[in-house]
Each structure stands twice: as C-alpha cells, then as structure tokens.
Amino acid sequence: MRPVYMLAGGITKFAKVHPDKDFRLMVKEAFDAALGDLDGRLTPADIEGSVISYFSDHFTCQLKAGAMVQDFVGLCPKPHVRIEGGGATGGLCFQSAVQAVASGRFNVCAAMGFETMSTVETWKGNDFIALASDTHFDYPLGGFYTGYYAMMAVRHMHEFGTTEEQMARVAVKNYGNAVHNPFAQHRHPATLEEVMNSAMIAYPCRRMTTCVMSDGAAAVILASEEAARKFCANPIRVAGIGSGSDAMRMADRPHARVPLLPHESESDYRDLKYPGVHSFRAGRMAAMEAYRQAGITDPRQDIQAWELHDAYASAELQQYEDIGLCKYGESGRFIEEGHPTIHGSNPVNPSGGLLACGHPVGATGLMQMVFCFWQCQQTIARHFGDPFCQIQNVRRAAGYSHAGTGTYVTISILEKP
Amino acid sequence: MKLPEKTEGPWVTSFDPLTRQWTYTVTYNVSYAEDSPFFHALGHNKLLGSECQKCRYRYATPRTVCMYCGGPTDWFELPLEGRVHSWTTCHFSGEPYLSECPFHLGLIEFDRVDTLFMTRLVGIEQPRIGMPVRACFRRKKTWSVNDVYFVKKE
Question: Does the ipTM exceed 0.85?
Fold first, then answer.
C-alpha cells in the first residue's frame, strides 16, 4: 500500500434544516470549499474517482442519490461508489477513499457525504434510525437508539460508578468549544446545571447530552504522494486507518477478555467482562489496527487531538476508554480532571463534536476528518475565523466514526509529514 | 385531448422554496424464516435460545450458526426467570411508539446462558440492575418479540 495524503476538506454549515438547498447543492458547496482551499491548483478534471456516503434512503426519499451527487458536482463519467454503514457512514467513506488511493487505483479521490434529516419530524427520524437496529428483535420493543445507548450508559454507571454529572461535563465541554466554531449547529455555551436539568430522553441521556438531527455535507480530497506535491502546499498524511465491528444485537455481545492496546497489560482488567454492553469492542479493534499502522505506542502521548463520536455524552466517555486515553472504568474521572478539555492533556472534540456541530450522518465522519486535517495544518483560526479551537503543536489528530451501539467503528489518524 | 385536472393536490408547507408533503406507505411480507420456531414458541409461553452443538455456547436469542466456532446450534428452552442486566426508561421514541412513552427497556441475564435478551420491563416503578424478573406472555399474539415481556419477580 502506498502513502495517502489529505489535500483539502470542506464543510457546509450544519443546520436543523436547509430548505433552500437539496443534498446535491450542499455537497457541491462542501466540494467547492475543499477545492477553493487549493487555490485553483486542483480542478474536478484532476479527480479520478469518488466515494459518496449517505446513511438513509428513507431520509433522502431517493435511492442512488450518490449517482446524483456525482453528476451534479461534474465527476461523471468517472468511477464512483456509495458507502453506507449507519452512524459510521462518513468514516467508512473516508477509509474507502483512502484505500482507493493506497491501492494505486486513483491518484486523486474525492470523498463526499451528506444527510438531509429535515425531511421528517424528529420522531419519524428516530424511527428511521431505529431501522438500523435488528427489526425482528430490537426495533419492535420501542424502536429508539437513544434507549439502546441509554442501557449501555446505565451498565457503564453500574460497572464503573460513572455519574450523570460526568456525562453532563462532556456536553458542557463540547458546547463551550463550539461557540468558536462557525460550522456548528449549536453555538451557545451551556452550564452544568442547564445540561443536568434538560429534559430526560431515555435515562440517563438527556436532551442536552444527546445530539440533534441535522442537514449538512462534507467533502475531502485524498491523493498519492506525487499528486499531493503537485496540488497542495500543506498536505497531511493519512498515518493509519482501522475499523472494527460487533454484533448487531447488543444482547448477543460476549462477556470475555479485553483486547489490549500497546500501553496496557492483562493485570489492568483482571475482573472485567468485556465488552458486555458497557463498552465498544469495535472501537477497541479499530484503535488496535489504526495504532499499529501509524506506529502509535501510547495514544495519550502520540495523538494530540481527537474528534470522537459524541452522539451521546455517555458514548464519548465510553470511547475515551476504547481508544486508551484512560483505562476502562476511568473515563468519569478523566473528564472530571479536565484532560479532554481544549487546554487539557488530551483534547477531545475541540470542534464541539456531534453534540454541538450536529450529526448529518453521512457527512459526520468526513466532517471529523476535515477538523482533524485543519488541526494538523494549524489552519483552524483561518477556517473558523477564531483561534480558540486550535490545539497547539498538533502532530497527529484522529477521527472516530461510530455506528449502531458500536456495530461499526472507524478510526483514521492524520499526521503532519 | 387534455389531462383531467385534479382537485386534491399535496399539502404545501412552504411556497418558496416549494415544499410539498409526500406520503409513501409500504406493506411488506416479512418472513422470520429460520427464526420462526422462536416466535411459534412465544405462542406456547416459552422462550427459546440457541445452543452451539460444537462449543456449547448458549445464546439467549435465535442464532442458527455459532458466532465463534461456526457450529450449528439447536434450540433450548430459556429459563423464564432472570435478572435485569441493564435498563432505561424511554420518555421519547420513534413515531410508532410515542404513545407508549414512558416505557422501560431492559436487558435480561439468565443463569447458565452466555448472552442477554432485550425486552420491555412492565409494571415496575423503578427498575434496578440485578432485580429478579420473570417472563410474561401476551394471551393474544402480535407475532412479534413483544409477545413476551418481563415483570418483577415477587
């Protein structure tokens, strides 16, 4: 496999509804923003193929919407494929484009994603999303992903003593960061009290610890080393990609041993039954693969910025543990001690994450990689018009894209060359 | 020749940008296929799990093939009593279940069974992990997993 570089990224402003733009135009805006960042050096004619992601044909009311994007942005008759994998759709799209370049098939590949969730009311949107759970065994019980994640959170609280307040601290952190991110849907700071008093959706997930439905798009340009040199003054290398999976029905997941990261040992988890329903085994597997590729031996030291999949604040806590920012069971203390804050030892979601930015599913994983890219380039201040969210001295940044209570997870690591 | 004019059009929610309502409904014929015995058993007030005939892993759900060794499984009767492994109370949900809110979801653990079973917890004011529960079955079947639910074991 040959080295792959990210040359540019673009995002539309995520919003509850964009009635004036359909999905094709939203993607075109993100795509044009990415190309615009390359000062006209790269044109659609230089792009040899694309990967396009959106999660739900139900939301889009249109099958084969990827083909419509390909045609709208002017990439026909070049090769294109649509990728779908629940909440991880965007992350899978990014990795599929990386593979297309790494394999030598394309020298320049576009990865573009979108979701238009405003076509239906929130309760119908919840229903569509729940169709991504087992429709014979899980969906008929109440068809609600927040409920599934809530049961994971309740078990995490039981196993490790995690508290509602610790979850709320995640939300306060992310809303606070997003005040400085003009792409975010929710740009108001929140107090711990506000979050803790927001409406209960499914215990312990509250309105303000649960992400909202969004319309939005994101695009990424990836290329070989030679093409990167030709088209971009400041390319960032894709140092590693990893992914994992788990049983669709979380009831079916094992209660066995923890697969260890390089900086962990057996004695850390002697009595822990894993993953049960408290942890995301797919996230751990994705981390192991991505760290191996990128030569990461201690993620706490080797990766300076993370974009995690905080569709629920509880899930961000669970993910700290999966990726080894702290040991299993320590995520509550990890947030309390401030490590994942923007000025902490391991900043997580400096953009505001899904809670604040929104979660237009097919775009989300790509949005995360655009933020990681700007972190590595040190160009957050230029793109956000505000330097607050820029982590200083970023050598590596990583995005974690996540589907269906952990059925798919991707981790993609970017590194300054 | 002119097309006949229509007097009933779609509901327009916004004129510019023009936004119209579109209703699209589907009736599927969905087969439970190899999992059918599980749903038949609910009609006999029984819960079936799957036991791997090769490695003896015991699943609390229907699985025709073992996830770990690939061996064939056989049905076995799950105990009708277990404990709450985790739970939540849904105050909001997807459209078809909104009118049922609030309701409890639970994951049930059984003795000598390796995995869990997701279900509704009914008639329990405040569920807690470890709470002993027992299976109840609907008298009139819905031919869905909702034909079983769990209540507190007194």
Answer: yes
